[in-house]
Amino acid sequence: MASQTSSFARKGGKAAVHCITITSARAKFIEISPRVRDNDNIIGIARNASIAAACCMTIRKLIAKRRAGMKAPLISISILALFAGVASHAQTPPMDWKGPYVSLGASQTKVSYSASAGYSPAKASGAGASLIFGYNFRYDTLVYGPEFLANFSDIKGSSSSCGTVASCTSNIENYLAARIRVGYALDSALVFGTIGVAFDEQNQRVTGASDPSKRHRGVSLGLGAELPVAPNLSARAEIEYYRFDRKTYNLGFGPVEIRPKFTAARLGLSYNF
After folding, report:
1. Based on the number of CB atoms within 10 Å of its own CB, is 103 exposed (0-12), middle (13-18) or buried (19 or more)?
2. pLDDT at position 186
3. For the chain, which end, N or C, has fewer CB atoms within 10 Å of the first or last residue's CB respectively?
4. Which residues make up the CATH 2.40.160.20 domain(s) of the chain?
5. Residue 81 above 70 pLDDT?
């Protein structure tokens, strides 16, 4: 049985795992070849190589659907690519995932809206900087704890087709989140999800009128992973979704209710104390 496991692990180690790098215009395949370094890691590498292979097989199907004109969200492809990369790095030295941590990162956020009174707010997007701090508790392979996020950015958008007015702009100044993170510790990586409450600050302007900045409240959902890159240091990647409540804006042509929705991708480095 041990010899069969060893053989399977070595075959998995030699086989190239096809991962996906997502860019704004296209997806490219890159190859990562897991290495079997010692007998102590054989079982873990075999298991994680299988996870990577399953993720990549699903990615191929989604790419094929997109090429055939069918719906296959790039976000789904990005998440699966992230999982494939996590699984293929099973031989990275482990981290205990306990105690406080702080993370500095960069984000890309896209904002869409729903509104009343025939008004169509301008969609917005932009890059920003983020600060995350939290605390990890661990029970066996379960990692959990609170974390707090602050995203500082100047997310803007403008449109010349706004429904009831000729032109309009949207501007998101910042957003915050207080959430619970729950994750599963692999051999040398952490896969996690987040859920919590969020707040944003933004303003809406139309030709000849504007309303003071308003802060929306909502919910935050996220999915991501961390990989150790050095002692106490890990690389973090995640995708987040935010849905906020409606606020009433007075934009000169009467009151209008506006509800924003965010999608954000975030990369960062975390220091684990």
Report:
1. buried
2. 86
3. N
4. 99-272
5. no
Cα–Cα distance measured from residue 146 to residue 232, given in angstroms and rounded to the nearest whole number: 19
Q: Give 204's strand partners.
A: 170
DSSP structure string for 88-122: HTTTSPP----EEEEEEEEEEEEEEEEESTT--PP
Report d(CA 32, CA 19) in Å as an integer. 7
Q: Which of 254, 112, 270 is nearest to 183 (CA)?
A: 270
Global pTM reads 0.67
d(C-alpha 139, C-alpha 88), whole Å: 24
Q: CA-CA distance, 188 to 183, in Å (whole number)? A: 13
Measured N-to-C along each axis, helices 74-88 and 42-67 cross at an angle, to the nearest 10 degrees, of 160
Asked whether 137 and 158 are in contact (CB, 8 A), the reply is: no
In the numeric block, the tokens 């704890």 are attached to: 145
CATH of domain 99-272: 2.40.160.20
Pick the closest to residue 242 from 197, 179, 181 (CA basis). Answer: 197
Q: Answer whether 82's CB lies under 8 Å from 224's CB.
A: yes
The pLDDT-based confidence of 139 (bands split at 50, 70, 90) is: very high
Find the angle CA(119)-CA(114)-CA(203) to the nearest 5 degrees.
75
Res. 53 pLDDT band, cuts 50 70 90: low
User: Of 1-10, 55-64, 166-175, 263-272, which has the strongest mean pLDDT?
Assistant: 263-272
Of 210 and 176, the structure prediction assigns the larger pLDDT to 176
- Return the structure tokens found at 142: 């379960």
